[in-house]
Amino acid sequence: MTNITPITLAYGDGIGPEIMQAVRRILEAAKAQVHFDVVEIGKKAFLEGFTSGIPDSAWEIIKRNPVLLKAPITTPQGGGYKSLNVTLRKTLGLYANVRPCVTYRPYVTAHCEQMDLVIVRENEEDTYTGIEYQQTPDLVECLKLITKQGCERVIRFAFDYARKCGRKKVSCFSKDNIMKMTDGLFHRTFNEIATHYPEIEHDHYIVDIGTALLATDPGRFDVIVSLNLYGDILSDVAAQVAGSVGLAGSANIGKEFAMFEAIHGSAPDIAGKDIANPSGLLNAATQMLVHINQADVAMRIQNAWLKTIEEGIHTADIYSANSHEKVGTQAFADAVIARLGQSPAHFKPACYQCAAPVIPTEIVSQQPPVTVKKALVGVDLYVDNSERALPICMIVGLLEELVFALKLDSISYLGLKIWPNSPDEDAEPAHYCCRFVSAYGGHLPTITLQTITTLLNGCDLLNLDVIKIENLYSFDGERGFSLPQGQ
Ligand code: NAD
After folding, report:
1. For residues 35-46, b (16+ Cβ closer than 10 Å) or e, as one string?
2. Same domain flag for 300 and 388
3. Model pTM?
4. pLDDT tens-place string over residues 31-47
5. Residue 245: which of 269, 218, 230, 264 has the closest Cα?
6. How many domains does the chain have?
7. Structural domain boundaries, residue 306
8. What is the CATH number of the domain that holds 406?
9. Which residue puts its alpha carbon closest to atom 30 of ligand 1?
């Protein structure tokens, strides 16, 4: 007898309650050994003033149970509301987003011949930390933060997933030809970790051509692992090409918690009409059952669902000339329940024995840390020049001899070097970055925070509008910052 697993359940907004009701009925009919603790999160909580959309009473339950099954939530427009999903992912440490993308031809129309792949997306870092600044009237900044540990755990997860699920290849998507440090770290970590999984093939694609190939030739991919932003885009492209935005579910996995949900939103345009497709949430619930070690129940449900789909019993969103009967949300659930215990005739029956829950392995960087020699070797000073409009030649004149220990190395505008050897020294950039390095050459440890403070005081006296500084470090003698283009 399997133990009963407590699951936190959120009915969500829009079509959420009706698809969750359908899924819950199927889980109960299939005798899933679960107990549901219902929480109310989403639109109502947002409008009651909880900016995260999650009241304290719900947090208590969410943090008590290791698994959350969540229907889609409506984020009200404007009003400074935070994304509930991002809050949940970060608070619960859900670092890997797992999204299987599968075609169900000929019963469900798809934009490709055949797709059966899994996208594993890093879920907590990248530009999704949401750290943004306005620096001048015309310039805004978004920070892209990538950690070695973050890369390691999601890439390890992707390889562990491939190994446990009998997948043959893991492909890494990044843009390290441009972002050599951030995406470069992801790609390098991927290559390192791949050596621990010699039986699994691995390759790398620059994300733009990789996405084009995913859309036109998905058969070449098996498991794809990528950074947060690219992974977000890739998984919607793949789901759309598979023709199944209403069918796909996803898992958000962390060390202690996991959250399962459909990939679509709350579809307010069709809410309350009993026409929404509950399949995305049902497929997420199936992933959940595998995760909590109830693969036998997951299989019963998945096979009944495949049989329903191949018999042409379809909700309106996938109804086509190949369909047999158009049904509503609850009638679709009834059809799946009626087929529990049956296997599909056309589709390959689901087999989850091989897909035991993927327990993330310990990450390499948590082994004894290697001591790295870090040295402060310079500073970048960002200046808003929009009001004073000083030309480059005058800026150089002011800054060149400002602090004895520092030498002005370069001035750049949006990452492009504009001094020295500028074609137009009379240009007045709206903002610029001045790079200062040691006046004594790289080998003498002459720069301290005090030197930088002196530099800032000097800029203040010159009435320069310094909006940001970024210290420049070397690590074991290696440069830890990019050079401006043209240097
Ligand atoms: P959406 O996914 O809700 O809807 C897009 C289109 O797909 C609509 O035409 C809708 O009717 C249709 N659709 C979606 N799910 C369907 C289903 N199960 N069956 C049949 N048709 C379906 O996207 P949207 O309209 O951009 O977003 C609506 C709301 O959902 C927004 O408030 C958004 O913030 C929220 N949202 C929530 C989540 C989540 O909670 N995970 C994800 C995405 C969007």
Report:
1. eeeebebbbebb
2. no
3. 0.90
4. 999 999 999 999 999 88
5. 264
6. 2
7. 5-338
8. 3.30.70.1570
9. 265
